[in-house]
Amino acid sequence: MLEYSGKLIKIESTHNNMRTDEFVGHFAFLPEEGGSFVIYGEPISENMSVRYIRTSMIKSIDWIYEKIVEIKTQNSTYHLELN
User: Fold this and answer.
1) Overall average pLDDT of the 52-68 stretch
2) Which of left, alpha, beta for 34 (phi over 0: left; psi -120 to 50: alpha)?
């Protein structure tokens, strides 16, 4: 299976579910409208094995640079920087 890596950056949000403004990780699929985006990587806490973030349904995506996509969900806007 093809795997991507990159950094998810919170631009704005109505909640703090991500807990940090940036997260470097791996993902199996690029974001698509109508789906959610899932990324996993190093945990925040030492007593956890993995950190996992899943967005709500993606309302729109916009490639703003060759390797940066803007993701808009119901309550948040993110940038995903691909490696």
Assistant:
1) 96
2) left
Question: How far, CA to CA in Å, does 65 sit from each of 23, 69, 79, 80?
Answer: 19, 7, 10, 10
Q: How many domains does the chain have?
A: 1
**Residue 54 token pair:** 């899943």
Tokens representing 50? 């993995």
pLDDT at residue 46 is higher than 90: no
Distance CA 75, CA 67 (A): 23
**DSSP-based three-state secondary structure for 64:** strand
Angstrom distance (rounded) from CA 38 to CA 14 = 19
Q: Tokens 């940066």 sit at which residue? A: 68
First-to-last CA distance in the chain? Answer: 17
